[in-house]
Every structure is written in structure tokens, then in C-alpha cells.
Amino acid sequence: MIRTLSLVLTAGLALTGAQAQRNFDNINITHEEAAPGVWVLYGAGGNIGLHSGEDAVFLVDDQFAPLTEKIQLKVLELTGKSPDFVLNTHFHGDHSGGNENLGEAGALIFGHENVRARILEGDNPASAPVVTFSDRQSFHINGENVRAHHVHHAHTDSDSFVHFENANVIHTGDLMFEESLGSFPFIDLQGGGSIDGVIAALEKMVETADANTVVIPGHGKLTDREGMVAYHAMLEDIRDKVQAQIDRGRSKEQIVRARPAKRYAGARQGGFISEDRFVETVYDSLTSSDG
After folding, report:
1. How far is the CA of 290 from the CAs of 114, 191, 192, 276, 277, in angstroms?
2. β-pairing verdict for 57-60 and 48-52
3. What is the per-residue pLDDT across 17-76, written as a single tens digit (0 to 9) for each?
4. C-alpha 43: how far from its chain's center?
5. 6 φ, ψ (degrees, to nearest 5)
6. Cβ atoms 278, 241 nearer than 8 A
7. pLDDT tens, residue by residue, 174-218
8. How far does CA 148 lie from the centroid of its chain?
9. Using one digit for the tens of pLDDT, what is the confidence trace for 144-158?
10. Which interval of the chain is the signal sequence (predicted)?
11. Which of 286, 89, 81, 70 has the alpha carbon at shortest distance from 196?
């Protein structure tokens, strides 16, 4: 499943809208309970958060358009209902590709203002959220307080993490790639992302969590606050090592050869974002005029 996820994720980050249409016949939607009334759905692309209760069915992200019917069937299996709300954690097609289908089926699509703006830049405006927010959005449903918190220039410029306060579950979107994915993180610099922004976002999520928080990462398996702390430490360590070499006048090629991320390569080497590519991204982010 992890290998399939990695391959499909590569496509999802590179392609959106109609370009992402490919054969998903062999993809199955599976689930794992994060807390009572909250599940993670695995398939192809970003992990989906599902919350259900007496009032409504709430999804965080919706993967690729060709998987909508399979996702709907899984939601029906778990809840006996259809999705009422969808919240996109960011604009990438492996997290928002099902928007148009689910919207046509009656779901109301939410996202940060930049999710809508970025999707409107593409070729499928019907996928854009119809309700947007600038800083945070709250949903009071099923006896739950669901809070979406925008974080600036992190994985992209459109990211939000989602906190189910009573269930004590956080969906990170692509602010976190859990280790079992077998890949270094992806930071979309062209999409407004930055290494410092991701680190700051992790700090905010860690502050929000406690020792009992269940964490749904954007990709990979369920984890916890300790997993987020370790992920933050990894990013901060690599960032600081790259910055130190930049300060010494080293070139990008010299820094890549020095392998500042070598310590973490064992678990994450071989994925679609290689060690070298990630170090290059960190360098480009730190030396960009945009920060």
C-alpha cells in the first residue's frame, strides 16, 4: 500500500484536474479509526479525515476524482450517510480532486482563500471551494468543535490543519509526511511553500496537541504528538545544517554532497522525494528572495 501511495502521490503533486485522470481501478479505500466518530481513509493520494455523527458527515480532503464513488461507498459503509461538508487542507489535486464530484452530490466545499485562488488558476474551476476563509474556520457539528487553522507559506501558501477538539484528533494535511511513507517531505516552493513556514506550522500543531492526540498525517500512517515533535526536529535540524553551510559560502552542489539529511535517510530514502532533492528544496527556500 505504501509503494502504491508513493507512486500515486507523485502523480498527484505533478498533475491536477483533468490531467490527473488515470486508472485507479486497483485502488481500494481502506479505513482506520482515529477516535470514536473519526476515521482516516487510505486510498491514493492524501489521507482523508472522516467525522460523522447525528448532524452531518464531514470530510477532510477527497483524493482524486476517479475515486469519488469508492470514497462515497466507504463513507456509506461507515456512517450510513453521504458527505455534507468537505474541507480541503490545500489545493493539490490528490487532496482536492474529488471536489467537483462531491459538490455535485450535495456536499459543501470549504477551503482557505488561496485554495480557491490556486484551483481557479487551473483548468477546473468547478473544483474550487465555494466557502473560503482567511485565517480560521470553525464547524460546530455532531457535538464536536472542528477548527481549521491556516498556516502561512508552509507546504504551500494555502495550507490549513484541522483540529477535532473533543475527539482530540489533528489532520495535518501535507504539513507532515509520516515516516512509513518512505519519502522525504515535499515542499511546493512554486505553490508558495517554504521550509521555515513548515517548521512554524509544526510548532503550532505541537502546541495544539497533547500526549493523547491522534495525528492524521497528509501521507503515511496514524501517529501522535511525539511523532510530530520528531518530524519538527528533523526539519529544523536539516534546515539549520543547510543554513550553516550557506553562511559559509557553500554552493548548492557542495551542500548536497555534504549530505546534511544523511541521518534521516535510512527510513526515508528511496521515496519519490529523495534525500538530495529535499536538500535542494531547503537550499532553494532559504536562498529565495521570498524567504
Report:
1. 17, 12, 9, 22, 20
2. antiparallel
3. 433 446 799 999 999 999 999 999 999 999 999 999 999 999 999 999 999 999 999 999
4. 14
5. -65, -45
6. no
7. 999 999 999 999 999 999 999 999 999 999 999 999 999 999 999
8. 13
9. 999 999 999 999 999
10. 1-20
11. 286
Residue that is written with C-alpha cell 509526511 in the block: 177
Mark 144-174 as b/e (b = at least 16 C-beta within 10 Å).
bebbbbbbebbbbbbbbbbbbeebbbbbbbb
| The three grid cell numbers given for residue 161, joined into one nine-digit string | 490543519
CA dist., res. 29 & res. 44, Å (int): 8
The answer to whether the beta carbons of residues 142 and 53 sit under 8 Å apart is yes
Do residues 38 and 50 make contact, with C-beta atoms less than 8 angstroms apart?
Answer: yes
Among left, alpha and beta (phi > 0; psi -120 to 50; other), residue 82 is beta
d(CA 275, CA 92) in angstroms, rounded, equals 22
Q: What is the CATH number of domain 2-227?
A: 3.60.15.10
How far is 219 from 141, CA to CA, in rounded Å?
26
231-273 pLDDT tens trace: 999 999 999 999 999 999 999 999 999 999 999 998 888 788 9
Closest CA to 96 of 158, 153, 5: 158
